[in-house]
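re: ur question from earlier - yeah i can do the single chain one, its not a big deal. heres the input i used so u can compare w yours
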Amino acid sequence: MSFKIFLSKFLKYGTLLTSFGFIITVSLQIFARFFLSDVPSWTEEASRILFIYAIAFASGLAYRGNYFVFLEAFYAGFSETLKKIIDLTSPFMSFVLFGVSGFYSLYMVEMGFYEHSPTLQVIMVVPFLSILIMSLSISYFSLLAFLKKIKFWKS
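and the output i got, formated as tokens:
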């Protein structure tokens, strides 16, 4: 199994599990507010962490599938040369941006070993790691997109 397939499956199942967990915790919180006398305090923090992870896992998949917002109205008015420049620099700039973000998220992850969340009392490495996952997955898929565009224009 190639790394690209492994990463895609990891991100897909991570998105599914965290989204499902988010739905369950929010549903539990809604149920508790209407039918129980005491709302569990951990559901808000758990749903926040699960939502952050769902976005982090889904972002790499969104980049791979080209599902991000694209301003077609502006792009259509550009010359063919400018379109080629934008098509080439866009994945490269994404790679640089999320590569730098991934590098600096390592420092956040390191700081997270010394902090705990208020209600769940989990070490903050758990939520901070989501930024690293998002940064690395988008960096990887943007690098692949950049290399693919270079190959396309060379041929």
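The radius of gyration is 20 Å. not sure if urs matches, ping me
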